[in-house]
# Entry
Amino acid sequence: MKYRLNNRALAPWYAGIGFFLLWEIICRAFKVESFILPAPSEAFQAMWDFWPAIWMNAQQTLITTLGGFALAVVFGLLLGIFIGASPIIYAALYPLLIGFNSVPKVALVPVLVIWFGIGTVPAIITAFLISFFPIVVNVATGIATLEPELEDVMRALGASRTDILLKVGVPRSMPYFFASLKIAITLAFVGSVISETVAANAGIGYLMLSASSSFRVPLVFAGLLVIAALGIIMYAVAAWVERRMTGWAVRGKDRGAGFATGG
# Structure
């Protein structure tokens, strides 16, 4: 059993190392030019050479991402409870949410720049707009799918509609909520980088745009690797929070499975 758990924990590392080795071999074997597809060794070398700039811009991206993600958590949770609490509101607002989520968020960045100017604020708002949807949907679904039999039992015990929502519906939706955080945090990074490549003067997206304009492609891929690493770390944190907060909803044999299972 212990051997199996160790293999499961090490599997992502094996896959990652294998991916980079295959990438390196292909670039070397086919003599791919670095301005087309740099080898991982060239991307890591660029990361080392430009580490001060990468570190400074990575901090900016992380701050804007966490800011947008925090807003998404607060507003997504509240809106999800509001929508899931009433079948009429659920039916009325769900199509609007689908339509809003279908709008490419990159198209909204120029509007945000007009409203708030170039900088951090548009990046935070873009991260929020692109990441709050899965939170709203999951929370609303968790509440809206409350078993009718359970509601009947609660009413028979004298519980009001508000009691059922707060004491049964909201706790029932928590596994959905914490599971959605893993999706939302990765989407928040996407929103931040999109905004930084369009209208920002700092951040990994801005760094990648500047590097691509001067054909420093290894630096562009170094930025991509940094974003990927940050996303993996934040996903792991969200998965850890999910396991700690909703352990009662996870089967005993699945607990402690770790990052390899995503929660």
